Amino acid sequence: MTWTTALDVVAAICMLSGALFALIAALGVLRLPDLLSRMHAATKPQVLGLLLVLTGLGLHVREPELIGILVLIGFFQMITSPVATHMVGRAAFRARLVDTEGLVVDELSQLDNGEEPRGAP
Amino acid sequence: MSPQLRTTRRGDVRPARYQALQPAAVVWLTLVWVVLWRDLSLGNLVLGLVVAVVVCVVFPLPPVRMRMRIRPAALAWTVVRFLADVVVSSVHVAYAVLRPRHRPRNAVIEVDLTSSSDLVLTIVAQMTSLIPGSIVVEARRSTHTLFLHVFDVGDAESADRFRGTVLAQEARVLRALGAGSPADAPEGATG
Fold first, then answer.
1. Which end of chain A has fewer CB atoms within 10 angstroms, the N or the C?
2. Residue A37 backbone phi and psi in degrees, to 5
3. Which residues pair with B150 in a beta bridge?
4. Count of Cβ atoms closer than 10 Å to residue B20 Cβ
C-alpha cells in the first residue's frame, strides 16, 4: 500500500464521517423540540462535519494552493456560524418566542425586559 | 455600540472617526484576496492591496485597544483544546438528536467575564458558541456579560458548574493572548 492510497483512505473516512455529522445536524434541526435547541444542532455538528469534509478534500487533492482556500472556508464558517446563531437566538428571546418551560435555569428573563440599560457604551 | 463623541474646534459634536487604515487588517485582507484568487503575481498583489484599503476606508472598525503579547505555547494549547471540545460537543449534540423520545433540559445562564476587553468578549463568545454545548443569546458590552443557552444540561447544579467552564475558557484565551491577569487589562476603564 502506497502513501497515496493511505491518504485517500483517510480522506474517505474524513469525508464520510463529515457527511454523517452534517446529516445528524439536519436531523437535529427537524427533531429537536424548540428553536434554541435546533440552533445547537445547526451550529456544532454542522461545523464539525464541514471541517471533516474539508480535511478529507485537502488530503485527497493534495495541492498547496487549494489548501489555502480550504483553510479560509473552515475559518469563515467557524466565525460566521456562531454569529448567525446568536442573531436568531437573540431575536427569538427579545420577541419572547422562546419556550421557557423547558429551561431548568433562566437568568435572562428574570432581568428587566431584556434590554441593555441606556447609556451603555 | 455607538462610537465615542468628539467636540470639534467649531463646537459641533460628532462621532469620532476611527483610524481607518489599520496595518494588520490591510495585510489580512490582502492575504485573503491572494488566497482566493490563487495567484501570487505582483499585479494581483497590488490589486488586492487596493481592494483592502478601499474596504478599510469604507467600513472602518474600532481599533483593538489591548496590549497583546501572544504566547505560542498557550495559543497552541487553546487551539488544541478548542478543537477537542468541538468534537466532544458535536458528538454530544449528535447523541442527543439521535436518542429516541429524549427531551433536552436546557438552561439560560449569565456569565460575567472577568476581562473588560471587547476583543476577549468577542473571542470567548465565538468559542463558546461552538463549544461546549452553548450558544450566546445576549451579550452586554457595558458589563461584559454573556447570556448563554446551554444545551441538555440536566439540572441547576450542572448549569452552575457550566459557568466555571466558560470562565476557564476565558482564562485560556487570556493566557494565549498574553493579557496577563484580568486586573491589569489596560482598556475599558473609560467604559
1. N
2. -60, -40
3. B107, B134
4. 16
**Is the confidence at residue B190, as pLDDT, over 50?**
no
Question: A61: which 3 cell numbers?
Answer: 487533492
Helices A35-61 & B118-130 angle (0-180, nearest 10): 90
Cell of A6: 493511505
* Disruptive mutation site among A30, A71, A103, A105 for chain B (greatest number of B CBs within 10 Å): A105
- Cβ A28–B97 below 8 Å, yes or no? yes
Closest CA to B128 of B143, B116, B145, B141: B145
Contacts of A65 (CB under 8 A, 6+ apart): B38
User: Residue A27 in contact with residue B97, Cβ under 8 Å?
Assistant: yes
Burial class (CB in 10 A: 0-12, 13-18, 19+), B130: buried
Q: Is A71 left (phi over 0), alpha (psi -120 to 50) or beta?
A: alpha
- In tens, the pLDDT along B99-133 reads 777 777 777 778 877 777 777 788 888 887 777 66
Q: C-alpha grid cell for residue B133? A: 454545548
B 167-186 → A contacts, CB under 8 A: none
Q: Is A84 on the interface with B (CB under 8 A)?
A: no
Domains of chain A by residue range = 3-102
- Residue B170 to residues B40, B69, B80, B115, B130: CA-CA distances in angstroms? 38, 16, 15, 8, 14
